[in-house]
Amino acid sequence: MVIHLATILPVNQQQEHIDYQQLKANIKAWAKESGFQQAGISDVNLKQAGEHLKNWLKKQHHADMEYMHKHGEKRYQPEALVPGTLSVISVRLDYMQTSLTPYEELTKQVSKAAISRYALGRDYHKVIRNKLKKLVAKISAEIGPFGHRVFTDSAPVMEKAIAEKAGLGWIGKHSNLINSKAGSYFFLGEIYTDLPLEPDRKQSFHCGSCTQCIQDCPTDAIIAPFQVDASRCISYLTIENHGPIPEEFRKAMGNRIYGCDDCQVVCPWNKFTQNTAEPDFAPRHHLDDSELLELFLWDEETFLQNTAGSPIRRIGYQSWQRNLAVGMGNSKPHANIIEALKQKVNSASPMVKEHIEWALTELSKQTSTPIA
């Protein structure tokens, strides 16, 4: 998401007399006052990250995410995306509530719905946007108008590469950013700016010989260190993918109905996970510990009401039903689950119907009585 807060402008005369070292220190302090846990400064040289992206795209590991091709070099050349950019302010916002039922426990309870922990509360785009506005306002109050543009997540910005260069963490073998004091359960945001701020030191790599994330990926989507094949990834399959889920991955999905946290769960660095201080990330409608059947019985109106302001709403009702049908097919053949699937099979869209029929077939394998 791109938030246009101002047009990039030349440094004005007032800014010529700024103590940029002090300003940098102030920005980091103001970022914390605005609700972020950490901030750092990156330069605009993302050549190495750009080469990695081009190789990933060449191997077709982006699946159907054609938007990864768009914008070309602007994705890894900040000054091409936003002319006049001299440095990037990168921020970290922790989202995990450590008191919740652990995700790994939910994946073992086959009647439950396992939802990625980042998606349980308010859409992070809105939360980060508001905090970045506060940070921009604090900078403007100190130095006057300055050129900037704010981003969070979906714009053509290589946020993990930027955050790594800004010292916020290192990119792990699962391709997520890891912080030595906070693990990996956090969001990132950026401010492209014309302020000539001194870059922080790039974070060094600390995964060592550990390959736990690669070994524990349910669908073997991490095909090599730093190489994720999206077409195999449960997060892609349940969120970005709007068509049928390939049968070869349905059993491995288990009860993961929105995203997948497995590679983070097994990462040793997440023993340092910090409890979020952000109330907007508190779970809504008990999505942190819900029954698959309960969620499957939502009609479309209920889905839209209960996911208002949530990232889950973006996948739409059909994908939600598709994912839940797979989860129910991987559960136990309880009568109420079978009845719910049967009641929806004829009225469902062709895509959802396919997954319901698959679920009924899978459940029938667990009982001596055929499921008609």
TrEMBL record:
Keyword Signal among UniProt keywords: no
Domain 4Fe-4S ferredoxin-type: 197-227
Keywords, sorted A to Z: 4Fe-4S, Cobalamin, Cobalt, Cytoplasm, Iron, Iron-sulfur, Metal-binding, Oxidoreductase, Queuosine biosynthesis, tRNA processing
Record-level GO cellular component terms: cytoplasm
Family designation: Belongs to the QueG family.
Name this polypeptide is given: Epoxyqueuosine reductase
Matching Pfam families: Fer4_16 (PF13484), QueG_DUF1730 (PF08331)
Coiled-coil portions: none
Native species: Marinicella litoralis
Function, as annotated: Catalyzes the conversion of epoxyqueuosine (oQ) to queuosine (Q), which is a hypermodified base found in the wobble positions of tRNA(Asp), tRNA(Asn), tRNA(His) and tRNA(Tyr).
A single MF term (Gene Ontology): 4 iron, 4 sulfur cluster binding
EC number(s) stated in the UniProt entry for this protein: 1.17.99.6
Top-level taxon of origin: Bacteria
